[in-house]
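Example (one chain per record):
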Amino acid sequence: MGSTLCRWQCYPCPPRCSWRKKGELNSESELSEIEQVQQREALGRSKGGFSSKIHLRCDGNGKPITFLLTVGERHEAVMFEQLMSQGAVKRPRFGRPRIRPGRVVGDKGYSSINIRRYLQRRGIRLTIPRRSNERRRGKFDQSIYRQRNRVERCFNRLKQFRRIATRYEKKADNYLAMLTLASIILWL
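Predicted structure:
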């Protein structure tokens, strides 16, 4: 489990037909419409400008299984359950693919009580380091956590594609299509 930020390349656009006055943009209804469009198109505003975040789930070999696209400032823990409910893991020999993995390895962004309970209810083992401000310190297997670098290497292989590293697409569907194409190439 992991996530990474992608910057959006903004090109100058032709001006709109109707110009708004400076004070017209402050109404709450228009701001909510703008926020809805940003949520739908996965474009979030941060210090560096517009950005999107890719939430990725990959298998033990570092190949992408499923991914989600959200606004850049969205936290990883918010999208965890949705990410876990997608994608099937192929069994070693034969049989029906399973959605539930045997173990989840994540970074400190996924360290929360809700995620730990979610995994415990489903019988999924976890290796997630605890944050320094958490009270309970549990067992933590450092050797298993080293496998997490496969997720980071998967992100690096995905970002070798220029259209993934910098988001040139305005629509989220087009960017997800590019992510899907890059993932297919990694699987080949």
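Caption: The chain has one domain: 2-15+26-187.
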